[in-house]
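<tokenise_the_fold>
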Amino acid sequence: MMLEIVNLHARLADPRENRREILKGIDLSVGAGEVHAIMGPNGSGKSTLASVLAGRDGYEVSGSVTYLGRDLLAMAADERACAGVFLAFQYPVEIPGVNNMYFLRAALNAQRRSRGEPELDAGQFLRAVRARLKLLDLGEDLLQRAVNVGFSGGEKKRNEIFQMAMLEPKLAILDETDSGLDIDALRLVARGVNGLRAPDRAIVLITHYQRLLDHIEPDRVHVLQDGRIVQSGDKSLAAELERRGYGTLGDAA
């Protein structure tokens, strides 16, 4: 099993914040080669789940998360990234003064060093970049632009999928990758994600809407409400939620 989550609880650690429990006992198993979609209303805990899996600070966490046989919760965020865990942010971060070329090469070579592999030189890196830019219909000028600075919403999301293509993670967590995208951008992002599906890679898609799943067909769909997974099913569950909404989840749970 790629990812095994058992009885995962989380709350904000800062005593100045509302320290209510956000995740209230998540159980989830994701196998290699699978795409799982996690849906749910605002405030249900979807982004918190993504943050906890990626190792973001600021949460008190209990339960267990096993990733490729390792205790994921015992690993620092950079260790998780080097081990192949990737998070695409709902709101991608801007990094002024750091261009995409430098950022990606540094990230990729950090991963390679952690695996005991030789670093890519500039020529090797550029050849790899050009092959993956085509996947998302992006131009080479992107490489010289500061990370996400001045990017449109669609460019930011495509840039994150481009980063995913370069880093080739084992576990990709995509937090509302479809938010703010028009139809054309959504199709390009979905094409990029579909192009990265692989037998040795698992993808967890977090989304509000079924429209993303029209383009990326999930193996399983899970509904998160009030910090718990209350329903799971195949892709037809997403279409059902689109018809009846989240308001009837309590009746179905």
The mean pLDDT is 90. The domain at 3-252 is CATH 3.40.50.300 (Rossmann fold). The chain has one domain: 3-252. The radius of gyration is 18 Å.
